[in-house]
């Protein structure tokens, strides 16, 4: 019996922003981006949640422009180690269903 190879892709919507919202329930119903330095209004948007996208905020947009579009925007600095940890939890749980390779 031959094995059929299946390619599996899991796209987690606005992953960094989703991790931040899961970690901080107080941001649940607020527009949120993961971006550079909110105090200096510098850097770019790495991820925007769907509520932020409703204001026209896009990935790679300058943070200052995003803050102008949405004065109540929650800006969270990136925490790459946390995103890697959560990503590994997701893919680790998936190995029950497939053989990585």
TrEMBL record:
Enzyme class of the recorded protein, top EC level: transferase
Source domain of life: Bacteria
UniProt entry tagged with the keyword Transferase: yes
Database matches in Pfam families: IMS
Keywords: Nucleotidyltransferase, Plasmid, Transferase
GO molecular function, one term: DNA-directed DNA polymerase activity
Keyword set includes Nucleotidyltransferase: yes
EC number(s) given by UniProt: 2.7.7.7
Record-annotated UmuC domain positions: 7-90
Listed GO biological process terms: DNA repair; error-prone translesion synthesis; SOS response
Annotated GO CC locations: cytosol
SUPFAM superfamilies the record matches: DNA/RNA polymerases
Family to which this protein belongs: Belongs to the DNA polymerase type-Y family.
UniProt protein name: DNA polymerase IV 2
Organism: Paenibacillus larvae subsp. larvae
Encoding gene, per UniProt annotation: dinB2_2
């Amino acid at each position: 019996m031959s094995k059929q190879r299946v390619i599996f892709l899991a796209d987690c919507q606005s992953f960094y922003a989703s991790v931040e919202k899961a970690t901080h329930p107080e941001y649940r119903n607020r527009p949120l981006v993961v971006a550079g330095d909110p105090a200096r209004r510098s850097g770019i948007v790495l991820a925007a949640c769907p509520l932020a996208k409703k204001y026209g905020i896009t990935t790679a947009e300058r943070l200052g422009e995003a803050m102008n579009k949405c004065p109540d925007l929650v800006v969270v600095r990136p925490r790459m180690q946390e995103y890697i940890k959560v990503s590994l939890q997701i893919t680790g749980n998936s190995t029950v269903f497939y053989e990585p390779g």
